């Protein structure tokens, strides 16, 4: 009660008090129908039944419950070491000297987990651009493209910019990253991060990725499309998604994703790579889109990815990867697609 009063309001604390007292008076009551797995899981994990049914139908009961459990975990803060400005071991030691309790990343070699410590954005290492905040799932994306120095990278849906700047770092400030977004204010925020990180090989431009841009035809050695999605993999960070999404929206966004995929395919150089990623676990936006794309574009093929043997990463026989949410990582999907001719 005191927490609600302190962080919300006196009125909210009275409502919470009423709810808790009602629960205590009816502790022995059943809140779901015995034998109804969807009602039981909805009560146990506090998820809407339509979403539970979606995960159940797509993943089966075991992985469905693993997903629900993972999406209820408190997310870690993870930072990525900027390889153009600092050495991992040196940065790790400096963070410890600054009083942070930290651990090595769960799967990414450039990741450091902040277990305990003051605001990381107030740390000199952050202000100097030596580190930047990014979830480990998102950290997998840029390295999956197998970036080499002096390449041209296109990032068609670049906000909030973590993958854009990671690509710039992997290029070691050579080549160019052409980053696009539909919203100018988001590009301005990316620009601030680019400046802080000391990257000089990234250009920012307005672009609606659903519209074809002729000047980008066969421009990219690597083309990244981290497409707009339902966000079902990041509910542990944005719990409101449970309540402001519905099946109709999930179906409608697929059209936008496929428009972006169609345009992006035309921007890839021969032998180049198209990298498709989302932060959702809905197979309609993930596996189904890749299967559709390959039917439309037989000149592309999926290449297998491997990030290490951990129990929350599913390596599909088709080559793409699903990351299940846990304490360390968001739910994610990544597919590396090579243009063969």
Automatic annotation (TrEMBL):
PROSITE patterns linked: SAM_MT_RSMB_NOP (PS51686)
UniProt subcellular location: Cytoplasm
EC number: 2.1.1.176
Gene Ontology MF term list: RNA binding; rRNA methyltransferase activity
GO CC annotation terms, alphabetical: cytoplasm
SUPFAM superfamilies in the record: S-adenosyl-L-methionine-dependent methyltransferases
Classification via Pfam families: Methyltr_RsmB-F, RsmF-B_ferredox
Enzyme superclass (EC): transferase
TM region(s), chain numbering: none
KW Metal-binding (keyword) present: no
InterPro entries: MeTrfase_RsmB-F_NOP2_cat, MeTrfase_RsmB-F_NOP2_dom, RCMT, rRNA_ssu_MeTfrase_B, RsmB-like_ferredoxin, SAM-dependent_MTases_sf
Record carries keyword RNA-binding: yes
Keyword terms: Cytoplasm, Methyltransferase, RNA-binding, rRNA processing, S-adenosyl-L-methionine, Transferase
Domain SAM-dependent MTase RsmB/NOP-type positions: 67-340
Official protein name in the record: Ribosomal RNA small subunit methyltransferase B
Protein species of origin: bioreactor metagenome
């Amino acid at each position: 009660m005191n927490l609600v009063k302190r962080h919300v309001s006196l009125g909210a604390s009275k409502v919470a008090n009423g709810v808790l007292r009602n629960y205590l008076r009816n502790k022995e009551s059943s809140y779901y129908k015995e034998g109804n797995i969807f009602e039981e899981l909805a009560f146990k994990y506090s998820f809407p039944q339509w979403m539970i049914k979606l995960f159940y139908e797509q993943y089966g009961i075991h992985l469905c419950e693993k997903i629900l459990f993972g999406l209820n975990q408190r997310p870690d803060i993870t930072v990525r070491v900027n390889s153009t400005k600092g050495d991992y071991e040196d940065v790790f030691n400096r963070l410890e000297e600054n009083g942070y309790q930290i651990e090595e990343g769960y799967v990414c070699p450039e990741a450091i987990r902040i277990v305990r410590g003051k605001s990381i954005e107030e740390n000199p290492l952050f202000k100097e651009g030596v580190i930047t905040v990014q979830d480990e799932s998102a950290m997998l994306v840029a390295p999956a493209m197998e970036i080499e120095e002096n390449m041209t990278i296109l990032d068609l849906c670049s906000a909030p910019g973590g993958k854009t700047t990671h690509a710039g770092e992997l290029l070691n400030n050579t080549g160019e990253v052409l980053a696009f977004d539909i919203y100018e204010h988001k590009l301005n925020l990316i620009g601030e991060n680019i400046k802080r990180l000391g990257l000089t090989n990234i250009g920012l431009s307005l672009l609606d990725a659903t519209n074809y841009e002729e000047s980008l035809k066969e421009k990219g050695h690597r083309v990244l499309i981290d497409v707009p999605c339902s966000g079902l993999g990041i509910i542990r960070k944005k719990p409101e998604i449970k309540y402001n999404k519905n099946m109709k929206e999930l179906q409608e966004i697929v059209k936008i994703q496929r428009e972006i995929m169609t345009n992006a395919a035309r921007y890839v150089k021969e032998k180049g790579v198209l990298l498709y990623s989302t932060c959702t676990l809905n197979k309609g936006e993930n596996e189904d889109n890749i299967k559709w794309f390959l039917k439309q574009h037989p000149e592309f093929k999926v290449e297998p990815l491997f990030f290490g043997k951990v129990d929350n990463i599913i390596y599909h026989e088709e080559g793409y990867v699903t990351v299940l949410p846990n304490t360390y990582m968001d739910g994610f999907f990544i597919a590396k697609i090579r243009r063969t001719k």
